[in-house]
Write a structure and sequence with these properties.
The protein is an alpha+beta fold. The chain has two domains: about 120 residues, no CATH class; about 100 residues, Immunoglobulin-like, CATH 2.60.40.200. Strands 5-4-7-8-1-2-3-6 form an eight-stranded antiparallel sheet, with helices on one face. The termini are far apart.
Amino acid sequence: MSWRQRIGFPTCAEVADLAAAAALDAAEPRDRRLLEWHVRVCPACARELDQLRSTAAMLGRGVAQAEPPPELRERLLVAAQMPVESGRGPRLQVGWRTPGAAAWSAVAASIFISLGSLVWVATLQHQMGMLEGEATAAHDRVARDERVVQVLGSHQLAVRQLESVVQTMPASGMAYLDPASGSGMVAIHDLPQPPAGRAWQLWYLRGSDRISGGMLWPDNRGNCYAMVAVPPDVDSFEAIGVTEEPSDGSAWPTSPRVIAARLS
């Protein structure tokens, strides 16, 4: 005879099943009230309920939360061997099982299903992120290569040699300028790394005008290969030069030129 058929109050052995459902927020209101009454007078069951709730709470820590599918609750109850009546919460069957066994089987089943699903989702998200990153990098490389081919194949291509104007900096290189496409390319060797928060910036010089062509970033070996902007009337400029500026660029040169080339 079950506790519902007897007097309506569960024993410690029967409370184990109620505690499992309560830890997963799956107990009916009436069962939850009976459980709360029991743990007020039974310290052992109160400790077991606290432990079950702590274990269930671990499911929500350290893993990005995702909206579960509607059928997940039913799968959890089935895995924990807790039948569900139509339109109502779970009705727990109490038998001869060892106290706490059903409770831990319910929590273990929920941990297995929830963690498995979350790990699978996290793995897919990581793989998708890697694929998107690789696709973006490949797209950028193709676009850059197409611009290089366009610049070098232009019939208006102007080639100028870049030379250092500072004795302590033996940098040199070439500038390939295509006013037809508005793009160019510079290749500079022995260009030192600028200080932290600083970068190299290319300028077109015409009288008192200074037009930026873009930022230059050398690698650890002092090599710099960069695409730059080219004014459509580049023939009207006298020279190009490179100065040290803030890393986000400057609207006007703030330091002397270290590399330069004549245009006209």
